[in-house]
UniProtKB/TrEMBL annotation, chain A:
InterPro entries given in the database record: Ald_Oxase/Xan_DH_a/b (IPR000674), Ald_Oxase/Xan_DH_a/b_sf (IPR036856), Ald_Oxase/xanthine_DH-like (IPR016208), AldOxase/xan_DH_MoCoBD1 (IPR008274), AldOxase/xan_DH_MoCoBD2 (IPR046867), AldOxase/xan_DH_Mopterin-bd_sf (IPR037165)
Any one GO molecular-function label of the UniProt entry: iron ion binding
SMART domains (UniProt xref): Ald_Xan_dh_C
Stated name of the protein: Xanthine dehydrogenase, molybdenum binding subunit apoprotein
SUPFAM superfamilies: CO dehydrogenase molybdoprotein N-domain-like (SSF54665), Molybdenum cofactor-binding domain (SSF56003)
Residue stretches making up the Aldehyde oxidase/xanthine dehydrogenase a/b hammerhead domain: 21-135
Automatic annotation (TrEMBL), chain B:
Annotated transmembrane regions: none
Domain 2Fe-2S ferredoxin-type: 15-91
GO molecular function, one term: metal ion binding
Keyword DNA damage part of the UniProt annotation: no
InterPro entries, sorted: 2Fe-2S-bd (IPR002888), 2Fe-2S-bd_dom_sf (IPR036884), 2Fe-2S_ferredoxin-like_sf (IPR036010), 2Fe-2S_ferredoxin-type (IPR001041), 2Fe2S_fd_BS (IPR006058), Aldehyde_Oxdr_Iron-Sulfur (IPR052914), Beta-grasp_dom_sf (IPR012675)
Keyword Metal-binding: yes
Stated name of the protein: Xanthine dehydrogenase YagT iron-sulfur-binding subunit
Keywords: 2Fe-2S, Iron, Iron-sulfur, Metal-binding, Oxidoreductase
Length: 745, 169
């Protein structure tokens, strides 16, 4: 097929109507007859034991059905393996209500089930629990010296540990013409999707449940539930057609899923468990991280020594890791490096991937250090990046599958007006406001993993494609429909993409910007197989004008198959179906990335962000006035939804740089701002002019689509571009995020 | 320990309320501690109105009550006996979408869509208030509606387009 009309079109989201009319139903919105309501009770201590839970008083309340605690939790699966999920780090997964032990503040310790939501909530508020507390530690900064190497596990495959030291860093660093060293401190962050985590479990009879869950992986949850509760996988169906944001928080099955299914099976009733906003801070977070950098450059501005170390927080029961220190040497080709990553287990819940995990943390340290080095050497920051441009990935000594970062710099700078920048800090102003321009490089790995898809030519001669994948708001439904449409040369109206249901063909969890490549490739494989089958049927038809045609002689277009050499010959899909005794034609196929070919290349999306900040000289208030992000991510399937992904990422970057942070009181081991009033994210008034450029990039290696995901790449470069702009505006280098006005006074 | 006693149970006796919801008279039988938000979602099965915090901090639950935008999570259902409520399900004119709904689709003013009903209801209320005029004022006056997906600039683009069209009409 030469003509691919749907891919590349700025199609409006296909589920748009459902979302603007309120008919899109999310996990906690399935009302069923006799539905029960569950409300979770969480630990108020950080470490220790539950001595007693007085359930009797609560159970006496009319309308309260049951109180589940560790004391009456049914006996379930025994092995850690059975609690594991596709995203489980090495260690032993948290098991809700397992025993009296408290591992972290906010740990779920009981589930109240009642006839109404209000009653369950009320009962939860008065449940009396006595504890025996033990000493605990949640302060990463003050215990840095206790950090240790992370354990290896299956997850290490997707999150490689740092490469070995290279060259002689110490010598190269001390011989450098210019040196910069710095420390970067990042606090905890929480995903905070606006939809609360919820699971509605519909009890379908002995050992059978239908589950509406807020998740990024229907099959991940299906396997988890099946394993723990000993149910037949075919009797566990997990459906998530709409997911109200997740950003990584739905990569692992969360405790409300476990509690809801447990209660449904025990009580043989349908039940919904919805967390409240405060409880959204009781499972998974972006871990606080401390990074140290030492970069040195020679006199012509080439970075020749890179030392980047990081210590990340993890829980005591799992070794959650991020890729933090591996990036710098992929972006900048220094010959001498020391890259180290360590973990520090604390009394917290296990951290969890949050939009651009590791990358957004790392880029702040790398790009701020680069900016400072450029400043010291009196080289324009963008020029400095160009001097240090990596044509190959020296950390692995292999080429990039494609890399148009240079164009990102050039086009981004042009659009932004970077040339207007006066290199001197504090030199630009507008009235009583200081103006600063900053820029940074962004990098995110382009991964893909195996997946399956089913493709069906329906009896109406239309195409239906399905995959268990979710659409967390990224536009999956729309882009997959576009990809599928081109497989048979159909208009979008004749294509249906079914998704968000564990009954459908296997898809991995949706995250890491790998969904497009993963599920998109599966659709392409299934599409190809379907074309073969359809053509075969067409050739078998009586007096078929395609009798002697081979794959290369035909075009799938205009709702059928035509001959390249004679476009007047067209057999419609409908005719083919009729010839097939009115039966649909279908195929299910699996796509497997060609690892042997791919491993010879570094595969990544790149970006360059340019930011203007305005800072009130007396008040220190900071505003990101405008920003341009130029992105190279291969073929853009849908420029409209892709642009929104980048905009969303940029706003996350603004948030990371200036607003969001979960604040702990280490005396109590507790988060103090567990609500959307005190956990700040940008409001409309904080978001100003944002611009996105997609740079043309051809990639014939990465996958058949030539496409890289765009879920994270918009975020990574923003926070450092902002902190660099703040430096340019004020002359102050603040390496702790978020940056607040008081630090500028 | 204070639990629901005979006397509190009396207080919690369900009340009969009559509301007009999206132009349709509805009878609602709810306890006084049921918020308008839960009344709509759990009792009337109008789940288009969303719950993001239950504390008046996110705006997802915004509905239009007697012509004004309100946070239905901070409102007890019993307080609104006799009121006229419009939720996202009642914004369009049959199959014909409201201009804001169309503009939201056109401008890709949502990703996950969870904040969307609140954004649209709030925008309708905001435009009717006729206070905010400039883009900056509109942003300010829409700032009670959070969007975690970061659709902010598209949301404001969509609202400005409809608002400006209205000014010229
Ligand atoms: S749910 Fe009402 S403001 Fe958040
Ligand atoms: S579209 Fe997801 S929160 Fe706004």
């Amino acid at each position: 097929m030469l003509d691919l009309p749907q891919i590349g079109q700025p199609v409006s989201r296909l589920e748009g109507r459902a979302k603007v009319t309120g008919t899109a139903k999310y996990a906690g919105e399935y009302n069923a007859d006799g539905l029960l309501y569950g409300y979770v009770v969480n630990s108020t201590i950080t470490r220790g034991k539950i001595v007693h839970i007085d359930t009797n008083a609560v159970k006496e309340i009319e309308g309260v059905i049951e109180v589940f605690t560790h004391e009456n939790r049914p006996s379930l699966a025994w092995f850690d393996m059975q609690y594991s999920d596709m995203d489980a780090p090495p260690g032993s997964p948290f098991r809700p209500l397992q025993n009296a032990e408290i591992k972290y503040n906010g740990q779920p310790i009981a589930l109240i089930v009642a006839e109404t939501f209000e009653l369950a909530r009320y009962a939860a508020s008065i449940l009396k629990v006595s504890y025996q507390g033990e000493s605990f530690e949640t302060d990463l900064y003050n215990h840095q010296n206790e950090a240790r190497d992370p354990k290896k596990g299956v997850a290490t495959l997707l999150k490689p540990l740092p490469p070995k030291p290279k060259g002689d860093f110490e010598k190269a660093f001390s011989d450098s013409a210019a040196q910069v060293s710095a420390e970067f401190v990042h606090g905890t962050e929480h995903h905070n999707p606006i939809e609360l985590f919820a699971t509605t479990t519909i009890y379908e009879g002995e050992g059978k449940v239908t589950i509406y869950d807020k998740t990024q992986g229907t099959i991940n949850c299906q396997l988890y539930v099946g394993n723990i509760f000993g149910l037949h996988f075919k009797n566990v169906r997990v459906i998530s057609p709409y997911v109200g944001g997740a950003f990584g928080s739905g990569l692992r099955p969360q405790y409300q899923l476990f509690l809801s299914v447990m209660a449904a099976l025990q009580l043989k009733r349908s039940i919904r468990v919805t967390l409240d906003r405060q409880q959204m801070y009781t499972f998974g977070h972006r871990p606080p991280t401390i990074q140290k950098t030492r970069f040195g450059a020679d006199s012509d501005g080439k970075v020749n020594a890179i030392n980047h170390t990081a210590i990340g927080e993890t829980s005591r029961h799992e070794d959650y890791t991020e890729v933090v220190v591996n990036w710098a040497n992929i972006i900048y080709p220094a010959k001498n490096t020391i890259l180290e990553y360590q973990l520090l287990p604390m009394d917290v819940s296990s951290p969890l991937d949050m939009r651009a995990p590791g990358g957004s943390t790392a880029s702040h340290a790398i790009e701020s250090t680069m900016d400072e080095l450029a400043h010291k050497m009196k080289i324009d920051p963008m020029q400095f990046r160009l001097i240090n441009y990596a044509d190959i990935d020296v950390s692995e000594n292999r080429p990039f599958s494609s890399k148009e970062l240079r164009q990102c710099y050039i086009q981004g700078a042009e659009k932004f007006g970077w040339a207007e920048r006066n290199p001197e800090p504090r030199s630009m102003r507008r009235g009583h406001k200081l103006v600063g321009y900053g820029m940074a490089t962004g990098f995110w790995e382009a991964m893909s993993i195996p997946a399956r898809a089913e493709a069906v030519l329906t009896r109406e001669g239309k195409l239906r494609v399905s995959s268990a994948v979710t659409d967390i708001g990224t536009g999956t439904l729309t882009v997959m429909t576009q990809i599928a449409a081109d497989e048979l040369g159909l208009p979008l109206d004749d294509v249906q993409f079914c998704y968000g249901d564990s009954k459908m063909p296997f898809a991995p969890i949706q995250g890491g910007s790998f969904t497009l490549a993963t599920v998109g490739s599966a659709i392409k494989v299934a599409g190809k197989a379907l074309r073969k089958k359809i053509l075969k049927k067409a050739k078998e038809m009586k007096n078929s004008p395609l009798k002697n045609a081979s794959d290369g002689d035909v075009i799938f277009e205009r709702g059928g198959i035509s001959l390249k050499s004679n476009p007047d010959v067209l057999i419609s899909f409908r005719e083919i179906i009729v010839a097939n005794e009115d039966k649909e034609i279908k195929t299910t196929n699996m796509s497997v990335p060609n690892v042997f070919k791919l491993k010879n290349y570094t595969r990544a999306a790149h970006s360059a962000a340019f930011v203007e900040v305005e800072i009130d000289e007396e008040l220190g208030t900071i505003q990101v006035k405008r920003a341009v992000t130029a992105v190279a991510a291969g073929k853009i399937i849908n420029p409209k939804t892709a642009r929104s992904q980048i905009l969303g990422g940029m706003i996350w970057g603004i948030s990371k740089a200036l607003y969001e942070e979960t604040i702990s009181d280490h005396r109590y081991g507790r988060y103090m701002n567990q609500n959307l009033g005190e956990y700040h994210i940008p409001s409309h008034a904080d978001v100003h002019e944002l611009d996105v450029i997609f740079v043309e990039e051809k990639d014939e290696i990465i996958n058949e689509l030539g496409s890289k995901g765009v879920g994270e790449i918009g975020l990574v470069a923003m926070a450092p571009a902002i902190s660099n702009a703040i430096f340019h505006a004020t002359g102050k280098r603040i390496n702790k995020l978020p940056i607040h006005f008081d630090e500028l006074l | 320990m204070e639990i629901v006693t005979k006397s509190t149970r009396n207080v919690l006796q369900p009340r009969l309320l009559s509301l007009r919801v999206n132009g349709v008279p509805r009878i609602l039988e709810v306890s006084p501690w049921v918020s308008l938000l839960d009344g709509l979602r759990d009792h009337l099965d109008l789940t288009g109105t969303k719950k993001g915090c239950d504390h008046g901090q996110c705006g997802a639950c915004t509905v239009i009550c007697d012509g004004k935008r309100i946070l239905s999570c901070l409102t007890l259902a019993v307080m609104k006996n006799g009121s006229e409520i419009t939720t996202i399900e009642g914004i369009s004119n049959g199959d014909e979408l409201h201009p804001l709904q169309k503009a939201f689709i056109e401008h890709d003013a949502f990703q996950c869509g969870y904040c969307t009903p609140g954004q649209i209801c709030s925008a309708i209320g905001m435009i009717d208030e006729k206070k905010a005029q400039t883009r900056a004022e509109v942003k300010d006056s829409m700032s009670g509606n959070l969007c975690r997906c970061g659709a902010n600039s598209n949301i404001i683009d969509a609202i400005m387009e409809v608002k400006e069209r209205r000014n010229h009409a």
